[in-house]
């Protein structure tokens, strides 16, 4: 019985930490300043997932809470329903606060990696990955970016082994508000 209990705790711990690692070759930005990162970011591109499928005008707002963690508010327009969808979560640093490797949770005790691995224009553009190469975002402080910014993003992520053929370019039409 003791061995079974220990095995169960080990498996639960493994599951809780399995989504908080980093993809091989992807390194978080250092030094990182959370207060400069806070604010509104627009989703320019992503690898698609069920929780964002069909959404346009996607944005994320990050604000520092009193306890040092980060409030995350994701918002997107669902054209099929004609309604806005929101998800609120919390993020915390995976290690030290100077390293852009955070863990974010939208579902209680379950956390997943949020790593800012490039900021080609300091705190104006951000390349963000999850714990593996299935999760990827290009974020911007503005709803649109130049074709050159898009080209540089594709070049960088292709070199890191992300599937550039699966990138979704997010519509940021302000008429949807």
From TrEMBL:
Gene3D superfamilies: 2.40.128.20. A lipid is attached at residue 19 (S-diacylglycerol cysteine). It is found in: Cell outer membrane. Residues 33-172 form the Lipocalin/cytosolic fatty-acid binding domain. Keywords: Cell outer membrane, Lipid-binding, Lipoprotein, Membrane, Palmitate, Signal. Pfam families: Lipocalin_2. It comes from the Bacteria. GO terms for biological process: response to stress. SUPFAM superfamilies: Lipocalins. It is a lipid-anchor. Its main location: membrane. GO terms for cellular component: cell outer membrane. InterPro entries: Calycin (IPR012674), Lipocalin_ApoD (IPR022271), Lipocalin_bac (IPR002446), Lipocalin_Blc-like_dom (IPR047202), Lipocalin_CS (IPR022272), Lipocln_cytosolic_FA-bd_dom (IPR000566). GO terms for molecular function: lipid binding. The keyword Transmembrane helix does not apply. Residues 1-23 form the signal peptide. The keyword Cytoplasm does not apply. Involved in the storage or transport of lipids necessary for membrane maintenance under stressful conditions. Displays a binding preference for lysophospholipids. Homodimer. Belongs to the calycin superfamily. Lipocalin family. This is Outer membrane lipoprotein Blc. The lineage of its organism: Bacteria, Pseudomonadati, Pseudomonadota, Gammaproteobacteria, Cellvibrionales.
């Amino acid at each position: 019985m003791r061995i079974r209990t220990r095995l169960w705790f080990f498996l639960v711990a493994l599951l809780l930490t399995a989504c908080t690692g980093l993809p091989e070759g992807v390194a978080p930005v250092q030094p990182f300043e959370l207060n400069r990162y806070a604010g509104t970011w627009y989703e320019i591109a992503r690898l698609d997932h069920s929780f964002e499928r069909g959404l346009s005008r996607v944005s994320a707002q990050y604000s520092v809470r009193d306890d040092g963690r980060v409030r995350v508010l994701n918002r997107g327009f669902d054209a099929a329903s004609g309604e806005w969808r929101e998800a609120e979560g919390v993020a915390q640093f995976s290690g030290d606060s100077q390293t852009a490797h955070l863990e974010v949770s939208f579902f209680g005790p379950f956390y997943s990696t949020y790593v800012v691995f490039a900021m080609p224009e300091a705190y104006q553009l951000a390349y963000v990955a999850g714990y593996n190469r299935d999760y990827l975002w290009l974020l911007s402080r503005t709803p649109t970016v130049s074709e050159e910014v898009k080209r540089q993003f594709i070049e960088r992520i292709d070199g890191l082994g992300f599937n550039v053929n699966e990138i979704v370019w997010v519509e940021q039409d302000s008429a949807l508000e």
